[in-house]
Every structure is written in structure tokens, then in C-alpha cells.
Amino acid sequence: MAASARRLMTSLDDVARAAGVSAATVSRALSGRGNVSASTRAKIQKVAADLDYVASSAASSLASGRMRNLGVIMPELHRWFFNTVLTGISDEATRAGYDVTLYNVTGDPEVRREIFSAFLRRRRVDAVVVVALELSEWEEMELQRLEIPVVIIGGTSGMLPGVAIDDLAITELATAHLLELGHQVLGFIGGAEGFDADYKVPSQRREGFDRALRRRGLPTHPELIAEADFTIPGGFHAARQLLGQPGTGMTALVAASDEMAIGAVLAARELGITVPEELSVVGIDGHELGALFELTTVDQHAQHQGETAAKLILAAVESGAERPEMLDLPFDLLVRRSTARAAATPHR
């Protein structure tokens, strides 16, 4: 008999008979809950494996009061950060034996309202992770009404716990690296205003850039500020705009994402500007493509953000707590070959 067919036919009672114990003991042993000796649990697990038994999710939910399902709400699916965070959440959930249900909050306000007012209230999830959304007061209240653990990655919230990096500090670190190398005139490629509607990364990263300059008594040059969409093509076109201006004296460039920084490196290459001899470039993210371009970056450990949030929220589920702890997450400067000391005389 095929394994898949045998698995469908095997019941909890079959495992109990084969192991010589009650069905209740099998349920406790396989769920990891209840008082079952180590030897009995090991015996039951071996019998279940031999019979290709897979516990019914519906039966497990009835027995435990849990769906073993983690809800994730995020505003984007196709961008690197969100995909990488989701990978971290999914990996940790899988290790803990949980499924993941993804809710994509689009730009349609009706869809967004439906997710918070109807989808989540169907109680098909044990906890919710919100990724980089600025929640309205009504949305926060709806999440609290679920009476299940909720954690936010990035974004802002007045009432709900979260894990986050300091986007202002992360950009200040990237900028300070260039200043320590002796660069005095810096350009900046940030996110367009539309990207600030929810997760506030563009405004915070711009402020980090400005703050680093202020600390050194240096001005921000408005003509050396450009906006893009966090993509390589967007960074390429923004960098061409900045690099095409004559006589600016710009010797270094901070990009608010690694993808935009890579676009800037490609734009410099097209214009015959050498990196880092004539132009130092630093990004933010820790994108895997950064190593291929030898890009200096501040790694925000996006996958670790997802893993950490999932660990916190699942620990709260297992312990019966409604409110996981709040955490500030680490970030690290990775110095590669796209940055170097400023030349004594600027090439541009």
C-alpha cells in the first residue's frame, strides 16, 4: 500500500492499539502536552512513525484549543525585505509545528479593513505578526479584541509590542562610516514619499543621514538628495541624476537600501566614475546581492527579525501570555570594497 494511502487510513485509535495504550495517552504524547513518561512517549512516537500517522489538524485544534497557525500581515510581497522577513517567520513556525497564513494588505482601504474586521476575527490563527505597518487606532483595537498575542516588526504602534531596528541609527551609522573616511560632501538616495505612508522607513533613514552630518557640523546639500523606489533600477536613475550634476564635489553616496546602492554603483560605472576611488557608496540592508558587488552595507538581519518575532510570539502562545516582550534588534556595519578614504583632491 502506498505511504500516502496508508497515512490517510491510519487513525489515532490505530496508533493506540498498536502501542497498547489509550487514545488519550497517544494524544498527550504526540501533542507534547500532559503527563506522559519519556519511555511511553518514545514508544508512541515510534509506532506513529511506523504507521505513517499524521495528526488531524481539526482534532488537534479541538483537543488543545489551538489552530497551530500563525497569521502574518504585511503590505508587500515582492520586495526583498518582506520576502526575507517572511522566510524567517516561516522557518521558525515550521520548526515549531505551526502553519502560516499570510494576509497581504494592499493599497485598497476596503481590503485592508476587511482583513482587520473579518478575516482575523474568524479565529483561524493563534497569534498575529504585523510586518512594517503603521496601524490606525481602530486597527490596533481590532487586534486587541482578538485576545491573542500580537507582535509588530518595524512600523509603529502605541499599544502593541514589537521588535524593530532603529532605522534612524542604522542610517546614521552608514553615514558616519563615510565621514570617518574623510568624506565631506555626501549625497543621499532615499525612499519616495509614497513609501512613507506606512512603515516610515524613508523619513527615518533620511533623518539619520541628516543627523550624522549635523553631529560633524556639516550641511546637507539639497541638490544631492534624490528619491527612488528601493529597487536597483530606481537607484540607478536617481544616482545618474546626482552624478550628472557638474562641480558638486560629491565624493560619497548613502543609499537607503542595498538595491538602490547597487543601482548607484552601476550608474557610476556607466558614467566612467570609479568606485571607490572617485565615489564611495554605502547601502543598508544586508542584501545577498551586496557581496557580489562588494558593497559596504549596514546589515539589518532581516531574516533574523522574522525568526525573532516568530519565536517571541510562539513562546507567548505556548505559555498562554497575551503580550510578548518588546525587543530592539541588532544591526552591523559590513565594510567591503565600495568605500575608501576620500581623495585629497576630489575627482569631481
TrEMBL record:
SMART domains: HTH_LACI. Keywords: DNA-binding, Transcription, Transcription regulation. Residues 10-64 form the HTH lacI-type domain. One of its GO terms (molecular function) is transcription cis-regulatory region binding. It comes from the Bacteria. The keyword Transcription applies. The keyword Transport does not apply. It holds the Pfam family Peripla_BP_1. This is DNA-binding LacI/PurR family transcriptional regulator. It comes from Nesterenkonia sandarakina.
